[in-house]
Amino acid sequence: MTPIRPTSEVTDVEPDSGLDRQEQRSSDTARDGLTEEPVHERSTRRITGVRTQPAANGAAGIDAKAGVSVKLEQLRAFYGSAEQVKGIDLEFRANEVTAIIGPSGCGKSTMVRCINRMHEEIPGARAEGRVLLEDFDVYDPSVDVVAVRRAVGMVFQKPNPFPTMSIFDNVAAGLRLSSRGRGDLRGKVESALRGAGLWDEVAERLDEPGAGLSGGQQQRLCIARSLAVDPEVILMDEPCSALDPIATLKIEELIDQLKRRVTIVIVTHNMQQAARVADRTAFMLDGRLVEVGPTQEIFTKPGDPRTEDYVTGKFG
Amino acid sequence: MSTPLAADARLARFAVSRSRRRRDAIARASILAGTVIALIPLVLIVYYLLRKGLGAWSVNFFTTDPTGNTFFGSSGIGGIKSAILGTIEIVALASAIAVPVGVGVAVWLVEYGRASWFAHTVRFFVDVLTGVPSIVFGLFIYIVLIVGTGSTYAGYKGSVALSLLMLPIVIRSAEVVLLLVPASLRESALALGAPRWRVIFNIVLPTALPGMLTGVLLAIARAAGETAPLLFTAAFTQNTNFNLGGFMNSLPVQIYKDVTSPTTAVVNRAWGAALTLVVMILLLNLIARLISRRSRLA
Fold it and tell me: Quick one: which of A240, B44, B75, B228 is 20 to 30 A from B204 by CA?
């Protein structure tokens, strides 16, 4: 085990300033080799751009895991005056897969979109409460939204590779768009594509358009794209609902491997999928959390009769 | 078992009635007639342009300036070199003004202004601007840049008048295309931690580029064919001029002057110039299509 360097990684500057870039580059090249680096090598938590005291993050560095825990505290989300998420307390444990299940319109996606602050991109939408990455509130006024989104990646329902870009450029997009496209770009792209289990299929045609891949490959390309910026958490909003069963299986196997690197939150309508991939499952109803627990427990002996009705197919 | 008679009866139930056949025939015929009527002037324009214009074309026609000397028949009147170059210069400058500004306005409307009251106001005025007759733009520039400054005609003043004319076309077409860029692309770029300006420059604009190019071309074609805004801004001169600060000839103004001439050879030159203008715009269109096709494949 390498000793953790708690303070060296902490950046106390804007993400685009020269100092940060320099630090970022050195730390990135240190972390991202061609091979997937061992989990303990990754030092913890740089919510880049966030002004924190080094000591605050230093304490967090001790657990030395790749993913971080996410904790929601009294999270409420609104569209205009309509309250869609009505006060949720919930923890997603580090390096676990947590599935969110619940009927359509219960606020699953909205809740997840609050974690990387994508919710507020919708005109008229806002959120209240706290979302803690480790011990860090992403809704703190001093937080840079852009930095939060680098730490918390997202995979959407429909595969959406950038249509004007090649496979390579799609994966490199996150790095380039956040001014980190220097250094060993090729190595980073390859490592992200390997991480998404796509490298062997596309290694020979990195220059072809990303939109030319099959649906399942496109979705894995999108996963590679979000892996490339080296996030600590990946949010997946029904990532398989547009895919066929075989492509779905591949993504599920991938999720199982990815949890060594990141914390995963997956919204799904497919209860078998939740049972297959999730360590823990949370059941939501009408903007509220009904219960959360080990997946096995939620599906076999849930504590709440409403959960039982839902997982046994009595409603929803 | 169904007898042949029963089968006939069933057929009769599903058969198309005679009155529906008739209505169908009438509807088809009238749509076809409408298409033909619309095509007649189009075909005639191309026909006359080619017949009269090609006759005026020669090497001399493209390589010499008009002389204004109409007494010695077709040999002495000169060509339209200054008009071709003038049009290219004036329209190029007008595009250099109108395209960045117009795309900027469209980006603001789509990405930032959205449904705010100011965005609605901007859209309203852009619509008003679209309906303004082109001579009003010329008049406006004449009042502001010529009478207002106490100076005289100049090529760049014509460019400014044309850019005003192009602006609403560029804004409206770019806005429509930008709205077509799927919101999911913006979302996934934002979710990667890209700042908004990067999302616009690296994702939204490249995706919308082919469509925006079409709008820009439409505006250029419109501007290149305008006479009214140039008559009292860039004025008319016979000589080739590379200085946008001086009087400048242009194809539409040359055509306007020539077609009112009593000399047949000069009127024919107008036809040749008109054909030249059409071919230039056609070429521009082809080039742009090639570029946008290539960029989409990349």
Answer: A240
